[in-house]
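Researcher: Here's the sequence for the chain we discussed earlier.
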Amino acid sequence: MTQKKVIDPHREAFREKADQLLQQIGLLEISRELKVIAFKNAIDSAKKTLVTEAGPIEKELKGLKARLKKISSAERKRKSFDSICLAFGKIIFRKRTALKTLKGITWDKVKELLQEKELTKFLRIKCEVNKDALRDSKMTEEQLADLGVKKVPSRPFGYELDNDKIAGTTDQPAT
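Model: Thanks. This is the structure I predict for it:
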C-alpha cells in the first residue's frame, strides 16, 4: 500500500518565496562583484596616471628637500642652532636618541638577551583572552561565571547560493 504525499501549501509558498529571494540575492551579488572589479580597474588606472603625472614632481621634491637639508646642515655646523624661523616656514633640528643594534646583532638576538638576563621590563608582551580555549574548556558554568563569561549556544542564519543556476537565469533582481 503506497502512501500519498501530502503537500503543505504553506511550506510550498515558503520554498518558492525563499528561492526567489536567493535568486535575487545571487544576481545582486554578481552585479556588485562586477562593479567592484570595474572600480578596482579604474583605481589601478588612476594610480598609473598618478605615478606618471606625479613622478616628476616627487623627484623634484626629493631633490629640493635634499638641498635644504644640505644647506641647513652646513649652516648649523657654521653657527649652532636648534631651529630657525624663516618667512616660509621653520628649519628644525630635533634632539633625539635612536637605538641601533651593534654590528652582527639583530633585534631578535637583543630580545633573547633581554629574556636571558630577565630584563623583561624592556619587552612588550601582548596579552589577550583566548576565547576559543575558554569556549572549548571543560569548565563548569559556575567556573565560567566566576570569570565573568557564559557559554551561549547559537545557530546563526546563513545561506548558500547556487551561482551556476543563478548565472543561467535571465531575470533581473527586483529593486
